[in-house]
């Protein structure tokens, strides 16, 4: 276990990656999926609220940051027509199921169940970006995912009380960021064709 002060370093790294992503979005070299980014922001803020209500400590910064920056990415995607990624039926289906997960959280109002539904919603919201990162990795910027994985790893290393409300969301964020980083960095579509 490491000092909780490393969480602030993780916030810094994640913020650098997110600023690069926003800059690339405004330039039009990165094309975020708006469905994913809207739902990432929403589900992360729900996880954040649930963690706060259950008394999770400094680790809640992960949930807040992974909701805050996607919201800014979403807003920045409207500043340049080249940064728009066309929304498909697949994106809409994932978005609807993601929203359904969030509605289930509202209905249940149980803390850990809220985190489970936030993770479920976030996962479903991620599918369009996972698909895009597999088929068109050049339309993405790796840095927020790479630094997001480091951030989540640092948060996990600071956990003293291993209960679901503390580790559930960080483990999910670590996993998702590793998947996206791998897809963007290694262009698996080309590797599988070989």
Question: Can you walk through the features of this model?
Answer:
With 194 residues, the protein is mainly α. Helix content is 77%, strand content 0%. The protein has helices spanning 5-27, 34-53, 60-76, 89-108, 111-135, 143-158, 164-186, 188-193. Helix 2 (34-53) runs antiparallel to helix 5 (111-135). The protein is globular. It starts with a helix and ends with a helix. The relative contact order is 0.18.
Assess the beta-strand content as a share of residues.
under 5%
Total beta strands: 0
Unreliable stretches (pLDDT < 50, length at least 5) are: none
How many domain units? Answer: 1
Question: What structural category arises from helix and sheet content?
Answer: mainly alpha
Mean pLDDT: 88
Biggest β-sheet: count, sense, barrel? none
**Rg over C-alpha atoms, rounded to the nearest angstrom:** 16 Å
Quaternary state of this entry equals single chain
Helix-residue proportion: over 70%
Given the structure, what is the number of helices? 8
- Spatial gap, N to C terminus: 42 Å
Run of helices and strands: HHHHHHHH
The shape, in one word, is globular
């Amino acid at each position: 276990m490491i000092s909780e002060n490393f969480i602030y370093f993780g916030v810094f790294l994640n913020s650098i990656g997110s600023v690069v992503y926003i800059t690339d979005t405004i330039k039009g070299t990165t094309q975020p999926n708006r469905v994913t980014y809207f739902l990432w922001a929403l589900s992360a803020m729900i996880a954040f609220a649930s963690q706060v209500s259950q008394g999770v400590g400094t680790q809640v910064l992960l949930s807040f940051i992974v909701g805050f920056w996607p919201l800014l990415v979403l807003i920045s995607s409207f500043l340049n027509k080249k940064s728009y990624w066309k929304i498909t039926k697949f994106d809409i289906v994932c978005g609807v199921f993601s929203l359904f997960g969030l509605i289930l959280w509202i209905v249940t109002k149980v803390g850990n169940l809220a985190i489970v539904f936030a993770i479920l919603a976030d996962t479903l919201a991620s599918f369009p970006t996972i698909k895009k990162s597999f088929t068109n990795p050049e339309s993405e910027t790796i840095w927020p995912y790479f630094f997001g994985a480091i951030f989540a790893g640092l948060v996990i290393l600071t956990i003293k009380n291993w209960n679901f409300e503390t580790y559930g969301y960080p483990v999910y964020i670590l996993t998702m960021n590793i998947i996206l980083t791998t897809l963007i960095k290694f262009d698996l579509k080309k590797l599988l064709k070989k």
